[in-house]
Design brief:
Layout: H1 4-17, E1 25-33, H2 39-53, E2 57-62, E3 74-81, E4 100-105, E5 108-116, H3 117-127, H4 132-156, H5 173-177, H6 185-190
Parallel strand pairs: 1-2, 1-3, 3-5
Antiparallel strand pairs: 4-5
Helix pairs in contact: 2-4, 3-4
The chain binds zinc ion.
Zinc ion binds near residues 149, 153, 161, 216 and 218.
Length: about 220
Amino acid sequence: MVCPMLAMCATFLCAAVSFAQPPLQKITILLRFEHPESAVSRQIMQTEIQSLLGRSVSVRFGTEIGALDLTVGRLVAFRMRGYCSMNRPVDDRRPGLALGSTFVSDGSVLPFGEVECDRIRASIQRVSHVNLPEGQRQLGQAMGRVIVHELYHMLSGSSIHTKEGLTKRGLSSFELIANTARLPRNSADAMEITGTLPCSRREPATCTLGALSAEHKP
Ligand SMILES: [Zn+2]
């Protein structure tokens, strides 16, 4: 809940940054799903990613490079492993496994990663018991948050984690489904996407993050 004074400050911040619009950065995210995914989860995931990266970034999504034109901007790719839909049974419920990963070669962070949908589903179901439509929404939101974490590694070239926010080492079940999430300002700086992040996500008071429970690579 945001108090009236806080809301007014947030509104002012929006007005202040609108005078200095940075160049729009383009990012294209290629997604390859191992199995047919939930269309609802996919749409929510895309919305979550765009929301977290902010209005200074134009995010496009595709499935293969051949279908894209030459204005893709920065290109990254994810293999979506397992079943990215809540209408499938969850087989592996072991906690603490990586929810996502980014490949590193000779010390360089590559623009290729993997998202573990089965593990994300298991993590969500440990704390959430909702109907299927709401479950698909939660899955999409969680997938988006895991991808933004890996995007931080890819775009910054860094394997270092922050102490809080989406770029810390692990995201708990509660953090995956929480109403709000925050990309730390220094992480956005490292990704070179600073400028017009949504105001509601710049205010730490609106974002409460829980304890760590899931490790991932790097
Ligand atoms: Zn990480």
